Amino acid sequence: MTSDLRLKTRLFTAIVVLANVSGNSLMTFGVKRHGGALGSSVLEYLQVMFNPYVAAGICLLIVWMLARMALLSWADLSYVLPVTSIGYVLTAVVGRVFLGEQVTARRWMGTVLIMAGTALVGSTAVRTHDSASREKLVETTR
Amino acid sequence: MKWILVAVIVTATVLCDALQTLGMRRHGEIQDFRPSALGRAGAALARNGYVIVAVALMAVSFFTFLTLISLADLSFAVPATAASFVIETFVAKYFLKERVAWRRWTGAALVACGVALLAL
What is the DSSP-derived secondary structure letter of residue A73? Predict the structure, then answer.
């Protein structure tokens, strides 16, 4: 494993996490401001998508999607999932700030577990599949 | 209703990630980050069957998620959909043939437990 690959992976992990957390938070804020449950008509979805907060959230989620696709072009799925899960912690923090919720002992414990899991998986190889076997896999699943 | 939406999101997410990973592997590692090269990669991906289906599934997952957060809190929605996490680690091992050793299993389990605690 080259340090180059690690560095690139760290950078893209950071982009994926930040775009996801800010995108989801903006989108939720916008949907809540719109008020009421969605699901009655297509028109309602279109309407809510023109809310500036929701629109900004969607743009950030497109950045999230593209950065994650790039990351998956070289890294394992079983690596990407846990290391980007640090976003759950940040999402909870953002939710708390907006909702003014208390940080309970249980939530602190959850945060610590996620961070430990992220660190543990982050210490493994970024890629464990090799080109030869992945060609074979693509052939058999085509 | 909430849990039906969660089930739809989890199923779509798992299928989406598996196909996306296959599609991106078939495309090969993105190494050149100049705009022209990224444009060419984007054009190639737009014709990549796995990626097309994955993006469609992502749209399903996205609109279902949008519906879910309109009737539940984000602090319920995000952790509840984290069940996809454990399923995807199995998919990564048995379908994508990744080497999931003890550090990855333990890490994935810790994250899943942590997410559950955050949700409560």
Answer: T
Model confidence over B37-96: pLDDT tens digits? Answer: 988 998 999 899 999 999 999 999 988 988 888 888 766 776 677 677 788 999 999 999
Question: What ipTM was predicted for this assembly?
Answer: 0.84
From B36's Cα to the closest Cα of chain A, the distance in A is: 15
Which residues of chain B neighbour A133 with C-beta distances below 8 Å?
A: 97
- For residue B76, what are the domain limits? 2-119
For B107, the enclosing helix (H) or strand (E) is: helix B102-119
Considering its fold, how many domains does chain A have in total?
A: 1
Query: Between chains, do A110 and B62 touch, taking CB under 8 Å as contact?
Result: no
**Total domains present in chain B:** 1
| Full residue range of the structural domain in which residue A114 is found | 3-141
Å from B52 to nearest chain A CA? 12
Cα(B120)–Cα(B108) distance, integer angstroms: 19
pTM of the complete model: 0.81
pLDDT (tens digit per residue) in A57-92? 999 999 999 999 999 999 999 999 888 988 888 877
Interface of A with B in 97-136 (CB under 8 A): 99, 101, 106-107, 109-121, 123-124, 128-129, 133-134
Residue A97, amino acid: V
- The answer to whether B91 touches B14, Cβ cutoff 8 Å, is yes
Q: Which residues lie below 8 Å from residue A82, measured CB to CB, with a gap of 6+?
A: A117, A118, A120, A121, A122, B85, B104, B107, B108, B111
Within 10 A of A126 (CB to CB), how many other CB atoms are there? 20
| Among the partner residues A27, A69, A78, nearest to B100 by beta-carbon distance | A78
**Whose CA is closest to A32, among A13, A11, A53, A16?**
A53
